[in-house]
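[Solved] Which block belongs to which protein?

Original post:
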Amino acid sequence: MDTPGTSRLVLRALACGGPVYLDVPAPNAAAMALAARHGLRPVFETARIHLDPPQTLPLERIYGVTIFELG
């Protein structure tokens, strides 16, 4: 799910089955806008703490995080 079009299709498919919770990386403005367009609102936030230098991730291509342990 690394493009706006693919992400939109996946989100629409998921929304047909009931409540949807999506962990969007805040630096990805397109993902945040997609969530807002579909009426999603923040429920809670998480923060990551790194002991070593953080990994460099292509956040502009990440529309949803599947695990909190990423990083």
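(Second protein starts here: sequence line, then its structure tokens.)
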Amino acid sequence: MDTINTIGRRKAAKARVYIIEGKGNIIINNKKLEEYFPLPQLQYVVKQAFETTETLGKFDVKANLDGGGINGQAEALRLGIARALVKHNPEYRTVLKSKGFLTRDSRVVERKKPGQPKARKKFQFSKR
């Protein structure tokens, strides 16, 4: 099997994911998964697609993450991994789709409008 590459996005985060059959090593920006995402919740989010398809430990992942915060990056990586698994085996699509791992979460920060302190908050109105 040759390398499968996909892309995952979430908020401002972008993840370029390369998977190849291996021992289950996950390298992110030349660091191990535990080094890059020290929180166990974020490590769980990254591995969710593998656990759902019961392929944990069968693929090596190399990913380049850019932009956003750590939570957005973890979810972008999960989307990229899920897309790569579907490219490898189209039968995984139904399982991953039902869990929502193939849907790009398109929610992004709303822009700040002029004449307001934030996106929706208004300055206090004074009648007199």
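Accepted answer:
You had them paired correctly. Confirming on the second one: Residues 14 and 48 are 18 Å apart (CA to CA).
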